[in-house]
Design a protein that fits this description.
single chain, mainly alpha, about 75% helix, globular
Length: about 260
């Protein structure tokens, strides 16, 4: 399958994989080595940290189902458009050679796992993911508590108030150096909304943290060349800004 349908499938696959941005990169490498188009694998790479089935339920419980669904839809659209643009610009040559080499050439085609080995592997992955995530969830809760109780509302609204044209831009830039999955950003998002920050600004912050975290970009730089990495960052960054400003304009309809 190729074209827009393949990008949609790649983005949808990302929604059922509960990985953060760094954990998604090994899967991106595996899919690329298996022969999937680079644009399709990037659709997966964008959607996997952004959209997660469990996080949708938590997002709905904190806000409402309307916000949860619009977040999912916009995340998928961003993933499909991002992957499609990367395919359109034919960026395959900017992927590291060790990624594009087909693993079957190494004799892996005969490798099979027994049912017991599959269960053990799955459990190891669960433990690994939990060990990576739990601390960031606690950090997110701590930051959210600090915003709730100690940081004056005037400070936050002065920086990220919905009436400021630069609020979405600043929220996106602030989010990039951070590293957390969507679970870690939810307590912060809830606290920001309570303090009067616009919905679009809050979701832009969440998307920047999950899709453009600095550690994941450093890791991704090891498998793609600068031109492709720059295009990926540019597409996602601009997409987040468009989503943020659009939702700030229509925010009252969703709350």
């Amino acid at each position: 399958m190729t074209g827009i349908k393949a990008n949609i499938m790649g983005a949808l696959l990302g929604t059922i994989t509960p990985f953060c941005s760094c954990s998604s990169i090994p899967l991106f490498i595996g899919f690329t080595r298996a022969g999937l188009p680079v644009g399709v694998t990037f659709s997966f790479l964008i959607s996997s940290p952004l959209v997660d089935l469990a996080s949708i339920i938590l997002l709905a419980s904190i806000f409402n189902w309307k916000i949860a669904m619009i977040y999912v839809v916009l995340g998928l659209i961003l993933a499909v458009i991002g992957g499609s643009l990367i395919s359109f610009f034919k960026m395959e040559k900017y992927v590291a050679k060790f990624v594009t080499q087909n693993s079957t050439a190494q004799g892996d085609e005969d490798f099979k796992m027994s049912a017991k080995e599959c269960r053990e592997f799955a459990w190891e992955q669960v433990v690994e993911i939990f060990s990576k995530v739990w601390m960031y969830v606690l950090i997110g809760v701590g930051i959210g508590a600090a915003i709730h109780n100690w940081i004056p509302e005037q400070w936050i609204t002065a920086l990220l108030g919905q009436d400021h044209w630069y609020s979405v831009l600043i929220a996106t830039i602030i989010g990039i150096p951070m590293y957390a999955d969507i679970f870690g950003t939810l307590p912060i998002a809830e606290a920001l909304v309570v303090k009067g920050v616009g919905l679009g600004t809050v979701l832009a912050f969440m998307m920047a943290v999950t899709a453009l975290s600095l550690p994941s970009l450093i890791l991704l730089k090891q498998v793609v060349k600068t031109r492709l990495l720059s295009l990926f960052i540019g597409i996602v960054f601009v997409g987040i800004l468009i989503i943020g400003y659009s939702l700030n304009t229509l925010g009252d309809w969703f709350l």
